[in-house]
Amino acid sequence: MANVLIMLDPLEVAAEPNRRRLLQLLAVGERTVTDLAAEFTVSRSAISQHLLLLEQAGLVSARKVGRNRFYAVNPDGMSELRRLFEQFWTSELDQLVADAHNFRGN
User: Fold this and answer.
1) What angle in degrees, to the nearest 10, is found between the helix axes of 17-28 and 44-56?
2) CA–CA separation, 40 and 46 (whole Å)
3) What CA–CA distance (Å, rounded) separates 84 from 68?
4) Is 71 helix (H, G, I), strand (E, B) or coil?
5) Beta-carbon count within 10 A of 70 CB
6) CATH number of 10-105
């Protein structure tokens, strides 16, 4: 059986609400899985799985110190996520925003 490298789509990975919340929490600074899990109603194991997907998508990085894993936002991965998101922002969306502002002004 051949090894297959699966590339995760950062937009898809970040779209899930628990993972978005993890990214928000990590934007403040590095945290352990235990610290992060305390912010959720799902299990620590579920949070670990979410973090693993975020790491595989390049959005977070992890470092191990003793028995603890510390997670932090990966600036390069977040820059790529922003670049991917900005591909969807077209001149039509700019016009829609301008029209909405003009409508409120009437």
Assistant:
1) 80
2) 10
3) 32
4) strand
5) 15
6) 1.10.10.10
**Is the four-CA dihedral 41, 44, 82, 24 of positive or negative sign?**
positive
In the chain, where the domains are located: 10-105
pLDDT in tens, 64-99: 999 999 999 999 999 998 888 787 777 777 778 888
Q: Hey, what amino acid is at 65?
A: V
> Which residue type, as a one-letter code, is found at position 18?
N
Closest CA to 14 of 66, 71, 58: 58
DSSP 3-state assignment of 36? helix
pTM comes to 0.76
Here the tokens at position 6 are 């699966």
Give which of 48, 52, 53, 46 is closest to 15, Cα–Cα: 53
DSSP state of 42: S
